[in-house]
Amino acid sequence: MQRDETGDFYFMLSGGADSAASTANPSKFAIKRTETEPAFEKLKIRDAKLALTDGKTLSVSWDVDETTTPPFAYDVKLFDNEAARGEPLATAANNEPHARSVTVDVSSLKLSGSRYYVRLQGKDILDRKTEVTMLQLPPTSN
Asked: Which pTM was predicted?
């Protein structure tokens, strides 16, 4: 531990006792950047699937393109219209990087006779949202 006019700091010496420091402390290093977006391709969701079990549990599963940035979060919303407008009937969202599926209890909704739509969107580790994936649940008969 060493000290200068700004306070204590850790100092490590590599290369043996004869090496001399090549910077003055405190040192500030900066890399000039001109990019406005990361150079890595944004997360892509693929092969999304939807299932309703006994009219009570909605299961949504998906894969991600392994050549894009890693996932961080997901957002799933159930709607009664294809445009996904208005208040969702059910939602599930979580910051769970390893998740590739989610189940939602929809037993209280009494889904029947209509078409329902699920809006799936992910977020990558750089906080960029994926394109929206829309899935259609076939008409139910409860």
From this structure: 0.73
